[in-house]
Amino acid sequence: MATYTKRELACLKKAKANTLELARVWFLLVLAGTIEVGSAAAQVPTVSASPASAITTNHAFVSGTLNPNGLPTIYYWQWGTSTSYGNTLPAPPFFPVNSPLYLNADLWGLNLDTTYHYQLVASNSAGRVATADLSFSTPGIMSVQGHVFTYVRDDGMITITGYSGPGGMVPIPNAVAGLPVTAITNSVFGGLNSLTGVTFPATLRSLGDGTFDGCTSLQTVILPPMLTWIGEYAFAGCASMTKIIIPTSVTNIGKGAFSLCTSLTNLTIPGNVTSIEDYAFAVCPNLTCLYFRGDAPSVGLYIFTNCNNVTVYYLPGTAGWGPTFGGRPAVLGRPAVLWNPQAQSGDAMFGVRHNVFGFNIGGTPDIPLIVEGSTNLAAQSWVPLQSSTLTNGFVYFSDPQWTNFRGRFYRIRSP
User: Fold this and answer.
1) Are residues 225 and 309 in the same domain?
2) Residue 397 near residue 344 (C-beta atoms within 8 A)
3) Where are any strands of DSSP class E within 165-219?
4) Residue 64, Cβ density class (10 Å: 0-12 exposed, 13-18 middle, ≥19 buried)
5) Residue 22 backbone phi and psi in degrees, to 5
6) Per-residue pLDDT for 364 more than 70?
7) Which of 10, 100, 128, 218 fits a disulfide with 67 by CB distance 3.0 to 4.6 angstroms?
8) Phi, psi (degrees; rounded to nearest 5) at 248
9) Given CA atoms 50, 51, 55, 59 in this order, what sign does their dihedral have?
10) Domain range spanning residue 380?
């Protein structure tokens, strides 16, 4: 049970008829650390606190709940830049309450780029309780070549939370104060019609919902190699975007991620993608080729709504494919075709004929392909040489410039 000194008991008896005085005495006991919780725990107040919200460079909103459990109870928020806190809201004296309450407080006068701690404390004659320590970080501000970003620190990493600037080609910083930029939160560039391109930090791992939603001038996007998550509607309404390269690290494509990308004609989905959510490619009327490098992922509803011209291509040795894909509902399923072109090195057409090097390519009829050439495999420098369709399952490729090189390598890829 709660234990008090003789002096404290005398103070409590004396204050019994005076609610304000009782609150003052309880507060002094709380500060002195003399209130303990014992067998009377059933009457100890119950408290909870939620994550901070409405966080700006100088303000945050905190909220929680209090149940006095039948005894007059005082409460307050304590907050500061460490778990020693140092600030309280409301300021003493504290007035006791008797009914359950939803509590909130506005924390003002905060500093830029700073982590703050807070908790809700309550006390009655049965004991004192406090929520676990919670924390939040206020945004910092940095400028890169006239582009201004806000950011927050999160467990030794940086999340970009806002942008202001001229648009055009936007260079997102690789690091802030030596910490890597790993995330861009929701709608940071949403509706920025002047944005034409972005350079991403190599450490970026996630794009929030609506990150580039409605960026109608964005044209070509090369996503960074560590990215794993493309959020909901991340590129929705990017009507001028003709090309986007998705890295092999991506595992999830969010709801509506590429919807209303009306200039997009083809897209390659890496082999690690396991989930494509609702409406991912909705209203992409010019999308004709969707190339998958892995097994068939799980799909949501209506991923091909008003996307009637697309054919899905998949590789040999992958699993889960049928004659159609994306049929939720079935009427929206699009044709799924094995993409398997191969150079026919064993037939009579392989080699030099009429002083021109060439070879046949065979595979599933009518699949599209591009033949590329390179003189340096280590440099990964490939040049497109011929775009073809395997009409009736075959096409002949020739390289009239083959004599210009001491040696040349060839490969076949999807458009």
Assistant:
1) yes
2) no
3) 168-171, 175-176, 179-184, 195-199, 206-207
4) buried
5) -60, -45
6) yes
7) 100
8) -65, -15
9) positive
10) 342-413
State pTM to two decimals: 0.77
Q: Which residue has the tokens 């001491």?
A: 406
**Section 131-140 average pLDDT:** 95
Q: What pLDDT, on a 0 to 100 scale, did the predictor assign at position 2?
A: 46
CATH number at residue 69: 2.60.40.10
DSSP secondary structure string for all residues of 337-356 = EE---EE-TTSTTSEEETTE
Within this chain, do residues 223 and 326 fall inside the same structural domain, yes or no? yes
pLDDT of residue 23: 46
Q: What percent of the chain has pLDDT over 90?
A: 78
Q: How many domains does the chain have?
A: 3
Residue-wise pLDDT for 373-399, tens only, equals 999 888 888 999 999 999 999 999 999
Note whether 111 and 210 are same-domain residues: no
pLDDT of residue 245: 96
> Which is it for the CA torsion 262, 266, 268, 274, positive or negative?
positive
| pLDDT score recorded for residue 379 | 84
Of the residues 105, 121, 136, the one at which a domain ends: 136
Kindly report, residue by residue over 14-23, the tens digit of the pLDDT.
444 444 444 4
Render pLDDT for 186-202 as a digit per residue (tens, 0 to 9).
Answer: 999 999 999 999 999 99
How many Cβ atoms sit within 10 Å of the Cβ of residue 194? 13
Boundary-marking domain end, from 136, 153, 180: 136
pLDDT score of 4: 39
Domain co-membership, 63 together with 121:
yes
Alpha carbon separation from 88 to 67, 107, 111, 304 (Å, rounded): 20, 10, 17, 54
Contact (Cβ atoms closer than 8 angstroms) between residue 66 and residue 122: yes
Length of the chain, in residues: 415
Q: Are residues 161 and 300 in the same domain?
A: yes
